[in-house]
Design brief:
disordered N terminus, two-stranded antiparallel sheet, alpha+beta, 21% strand, 11 helices
Length: 346
């Protein structure tokens, strides 16, 4: 189809003049500006670009008619046509940017967060794996007839050491292990002080389990933390011996871990005699999980209890160790990072 511009058929007209082509370019520029300004999306702009600047577009038709001009007139028309082409391309790009900016602004306006709108679906919270492990341990001992006892995390020297038969020169008193405060106060290094406080207020027989947070000056690594959790177990009654301790520990470990091999190793703790450490066989190796022993008669005497009448046993375990074994956690620090990607697994 021949290109017709404002009454001229440029394909067949033999008397096209320089003035006519110049007018055609000026009119084309005005019309292009109107069409570009009226375009409302990128598709409309692309159609305008093809219609104006394409191989079969209106500007190409004008350039094709340049062959009918004189040699001196052709460069003038060509220069004017190039200026128009550049201007049209720039106008199209600016209009496209304007449309994108407008679209983004409208999207932002639609997606403004109204903090006063009631929430739709509130995610349910979960108990931390350490809390769940502590609760399970406590529940198992409560099922064996034990009751829960608690004590302060800020202790004094008497309850944390002296009343537990830990002499002044014992390594556990070293500043490397204990966070000392002022006026003989300290952050408890174990939950054993709870048993002393409980026995001061309650006469035997007693069976208590004491969960709580403890503090030691440990360097943080994959298995150590300066803040961790323990569970203390204490039973005082007439006629208790090591067989009762062993039976209680075996029943608890079987209920918590299942049928894992268990062994007792002789050990030493200032407040129990005899003392033992307990291991379970896990992933092909022996893993220590708790310490235990018969309550030292000196501890009972310090509480004004007759060791010839009363006897008892105590055991202590680290909640983090039990949690890590149960859930195959490789680094204790994962339990304290509050990383929801990790915590959502429990």
């Amino acid at each position: 189809m021949p290109k017709v511009f404002y009454g001229y058929d440029l394909a067949v007209s033999s008397n096209v003049s320089f003035k006519q082509l110049k007018v055609e370019l000026e009119l084309l520029e005005v019309e292009a500006e109107k069409e570009i300004a009226a375009a409302n999306d990128s598709i409309a702009l692309e159609k305008i670009r093809i219609n104006l600047l394409g191989k079969k577009g209106r500007l190409s038709a004008i350039l094709g008619a340049m062959g009918k001009l004189s040699v001196s007139e052709r460069p003038l028309v060509g220069q004017r046509a190039n200026v128009l082409k550049t201007k049209v391309q720039s106008s199209i790009a600016e209009r496209l940017d304007s449309l994108k900016t407008k679209a983004i602004s409208e999207l932002i306006a639609r997606e403004v967060l109204d903090v006063t709108v009631p929430p739709v679906g509130v995610p349910l919270g979960k108990r931390h794996p350490l809390m769940k492990t502590t609760e399970e341990i406590v529940d198992l001992f409560c099922g064996l007839g034990y009751s829960v006892a608690e004590g302060p995390e800020v202790e004094n020297d008497h309850y944390n050491f002296s009343a537990l038969n830990i002499p002044e020169n014992h390594p556990a008193r070293d500043m490397q292990d204990t966070f000392y405060l002022h006026d003989d106060f300290l952050l408890r290094t174990h939950t054993s002080p709870v048993q002393i406080r409980h026995l001061e207020q309650n006469s035997p027989p007693v069976r208590i389990v004491a969960p709580g947070r403890v503090y030691r000056r440990d360097t943080v690594d994959s298995t150590h933390s300066p803040v961790f959790h323990q569970v203390e177990v204490l039973a005082i009654d007439e006629g208790l011996d090591f067989s009762h301790l062993r039976g209680t520990v075996m029943a608890f470990l079987k209920a918590f871990f299942g049928d894992l091999p268990v062994r007792f190793r002789a050990s030493y703790f200032p407040f129990t005699e005899p003392s033992a450490e307990v291991d379970v066989q896990w992933q092909g190796r022996w893993l220590e999980v708790m310490g235990c022993g018969m309550v030292d008669p000196a501890v009972l005497e310090g509480l004004k209890l007759d060791p010839d009448r009363w006897s008892g046993f105590a055991a202590g375990l680290g909640v983090e160790r039990f949690c890590m074994v149960r859930h195959e956690i490789d680094d204790i620090r994962r339990l304290y990072t509050s990383d929801l990607r990790f915590l959502d697994q429990f």
